[in-house]
């Protein structure tokens, strides 16, 4: 029997999958059987997890859940249409207003995810005559948005405003957009925003910051990098936040001037051509925003957990990165070793995911430990005890 030509294409796909497996780069999904929380159930086991981005422990908060339930009773489940047709409801609007006040920006626009927000903003602002400058460690969604925009795409050295400045100086593009993570998602370090903003001002460029991991964590009231560095709307005109991390819900927002937001409403395709997020998610986020702002003890406890982890890890001689945030990677280097270590930790009841290329650069596979305000001191101690045992057993260190 001769196979139809299409099948040959699929033969190629299975070879690619096998190659990936051989390189220890194959990914698989776990099955979560409990809410997102440090002590969780997954794949039929009880585990102590250090891998979520629910930094403040709000994803499973009873008040957030109650707000979600009440709004679902009142507004139903589905958004039903895009924002520009008939999908923009009261909870969406109220959340936009509250986030504008929170960030001190004129207006806010909600998106269904951070990935979509970044794609939407960059493609709405830039075209062929323009240029985008991105930190080389930026999140994939920022890189993808830059590529899709068809603007001239350049990367600068990580957190290096001299490298950025040299690239800006040699550009004669119509518009120049500089794009950076606020807190770098795989390294945990913070972008040097005041320097980057000054460089942008020197070269008449706009600064866009994606602070997915800063909101809720940095700043006295959880306002993220912008609050931490006291960045004005002039210095930082395009501010993106996501709601699925510190806020514990889902979706994303862009904060900025009236002109920016109106431009996005008219031009951002990932805003226009998609159904609005469920209104109940917006209603739940209004409550998580209040908790995030008012319950400063969550940030204080989280900072304590970060300090404890770093101190104990240093005593054990572990190699940590220069991060003061809840993202505390332990760099292993080799992807197969990182996997072996993660697998052994799991046999000890501790879940830490191994992050491998292409998510991080070749040769820098790591265990990405993330800490949460829901972790206790005992949890941190247990992680490090397990790490010592697993490292010995797998001969990693
Ligand atoms: C998680 C993340 C995103 C994507 O946000 P989602 O709402 O999960 O799509 C964007 N940028 C950064 C830096 C992130 O860490």
Description of the structure:
With 397 residues, this protein is an alpha/beta fold. It folds into two domains: 24-53 and 296-394, Aspartate Aminotransferase, domain 1 (Alpha-Beta Complex); 62-294, 3-Layer(aba) Sandwich (Aspartate Aminotransferase, domain 2), CATH 3.40.640. The chain contains 15 helices and 13 strands. β7, α9 (224-228) and β8 (238-242) form a beta-alpha-beta unit. The longest helix is centred in the last third of the chain and has 20 residues, at 296-315. Bound molecules: pyridoxal-5'-phosphate. Pyridoxal-5'-phosphate binds at residues 113-115, 118, 139, 141, 181, 185, 210, 212-213, 242, 244, 252.
Give start-end ranges of low-pLDDT stretches.
Answer: none
Question: Which ligands appear in the coordinates?
Answer: pyridoxal-5'-phosphate
CATH superfamily placement of the largest domain: Type I PLP-dependent aspartate aminotransferase-like (Major domain)
Q: Which structural category fits the helices and strands?
A: alpha/beta
Query: Counting H and I runs of at least 4 residues, what is the number of helices?
Result: 15
| Biggest sheet details | 7 strands, mixed
Strand content: 15-25%
The number of strands is 13
Compute the number of structural domains.
Answer: 2
Strand order of the largest sheet: 3-9-8-7-6-4-5
* Top CATH class of the largest domain: Alpha Beta
């Amino acid at each position: 029997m001769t196979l139809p030509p299409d099948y040959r294409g699929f033969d190629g796909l299975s070879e690619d999958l096998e190659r990936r497996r051989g390189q220890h780069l194959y990914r698989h999904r776990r099955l979560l059987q409990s809410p997102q929380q440090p002590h969780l159930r997954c794949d039929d086991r009880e585990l102590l997890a250090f891998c979520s981005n629910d930094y403040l422990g709000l994803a499973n908060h009873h008040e957030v859940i109650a707000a979600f339930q009440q709004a679902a009773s009142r507004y139903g489940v589905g958004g039903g249409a895009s924002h520009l047709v008939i999908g923009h409801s009261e909870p969406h609007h109220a959340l936009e207003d509250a986030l504008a006040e929170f960030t001190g920006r004129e207006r806010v626009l909600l998106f269904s995810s951070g990935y979509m927000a970044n794609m939407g903003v960059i493609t709405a602002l830039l075209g062929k005559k323009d240029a985008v400058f991105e930190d080389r460690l930026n999140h994939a969604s920022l890189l993808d948005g830059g590529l899709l925009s068809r603007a001239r795409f350049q990367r600068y050295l990580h957190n290096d405003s001299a490298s950025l400045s040299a690239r800006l100086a040699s550009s004669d593009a119509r518009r120049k957009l500089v794009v950076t993570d606020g807190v770098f998602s795989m390294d945990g370090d913070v972008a040097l925003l005041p320097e980057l903003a000054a460089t942008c001002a020197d070269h008449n460029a706009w600064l866009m910051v994606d602070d997915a991991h800063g909101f809720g964590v940095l700043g006295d009231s959880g306002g993220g990098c912008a609050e931490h560095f006291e960045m004005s709307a002039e210095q930082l005109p395009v501010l993106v936040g996501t709601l699925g991390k510190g806020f514990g819900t889902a979706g994303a927002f862009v904060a900025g001037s009236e002109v920016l937001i109106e431009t996005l409403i008219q031009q951002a395709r990932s805003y226009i051509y998609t159904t609005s997020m469920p209104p109940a998610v917006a209603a739940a986020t209004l409550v998580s925003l209040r908790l995030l702002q008012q319950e400063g003890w969550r940030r204080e406890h989280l900072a304590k957990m970060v300090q404890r982890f770093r101190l104990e890890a240093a005593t054990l001689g572990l190699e940590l990165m220069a991060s003061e945030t809840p993202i505390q990677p332990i760099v292993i280097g080799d992807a197969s070793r990182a996997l072996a270590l993660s697998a052994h930790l799991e046999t000890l009841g501790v879940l830490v995911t191994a992050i491998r290329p292409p998510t991080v650069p070749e040769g820098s596979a790591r265990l990405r430990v993330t800490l949460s305000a829901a972790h206790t001191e005992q949890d941190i101690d247990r992680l490090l005890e397990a790490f010592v045992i697993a490292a010995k057993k797998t001969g990693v260190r």
